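Side project, low priority. Logging it here so it doesn't get lost.
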Amino acid sequence: MSSKFLPFALPDIGEEEIAEVVEALRGGWVTTGPRAKQFEEDFAAFLGEGLRAVAVNSATAGMHLALEALGVGPGDEVITSTYTYTATPVVARYLGADVVLVDIDPRTFNLDPDKVAAAITPRTKVIMPVHIAGLPCDMEAILQLAARHNLSVVEDAAHAFPATYKGRLIGTLDSAATVFSFYATKTITTGEGGMMVTRNPELARRCRSMRLHGFDRNVFDRYTSPKASWYYEVVAPGYSYNLTDIAAAIGIHQLRKAWALQNKRQQMAERYNEAFKNLPVVLPAGPPAGDTHAWHLYPLRLRADAPIGRDEFINKMQQLGISCSVHFIPIHLHPYWRGLYHYQPGDFPAALAAYEQEVSIPLFTKMTDDDQARVIEAVTGLLS
């Protein structure tokens, strides 16, 4: 077996992305400008259905902007999963709202709609489903709940590009907004970055203004307009959440490869499934027939009859030169959230069990067949 260290994830950057970044640097426009605008337009066209896309410097920023535009504030409640990254619930706290955590479906790791229904109160304003690993949530049930109670839905789709639900791309459903991540490990990347998409023109307008200090016009327009471009007005106390043209230059070409990258991830996931089907593990849930999983992650669960526990497995994989990770440490276990809402570890048993058993093994498109064979050999050797 090779002694070369295999990281958990690496971005798949080609010569096209490099050339576009170089051209942006030579052109002199490195902050938000023509390439950011093109990336937004290309992304909206990729999804179709009349969507508006707002490029931001992280998915966290996109979710914050979406909740702010929906008027979330003190006294409101936002329902989301405890089985997610802290960025999902923390944006509600930025706005002074309370977070109501709910448990997951133990098979999919996604938000359990029945638990969501039980958590709704007169203070509830938004439901934030999280598409874990790239597998879409049960959005039909969640959207029906939202409609019944006059709530907004903001999808945390950081893992879910491109993925489909009942034949429709995530981002095109009837949610108020959907937010994607282009962090370095994601299915397409801009290094750091994200995209908020919506059908609502007023929500998009508010997010565009608030992503750049609450200006009444884009910075790009200020510096390229033939009119007196120095004048602007601050219409709200906004943020600095804009995506640079350097990042967008990468995203333009990553987007063109999105389906090819997804196809490779799917093939790799299928290879893992076949290799591990007889081991003492629970394989990741696949998509319903006819739908598409983005396969951002490949989350294995070690069963109770596995010869070693999850933590020992990770340590031994590291010794073999293969990096693994855990997705996720549930929100209610972290000191901030535990202290704020007085959670106990057993409050969300499905999420706790998933956390104690789950390990994400390397799955990224720069892996070679030999790299994947090495991971398979290591996992099989440790768990057989």
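Brief comment: The longest strand covers residues 52-56.
Revisit when time allows.
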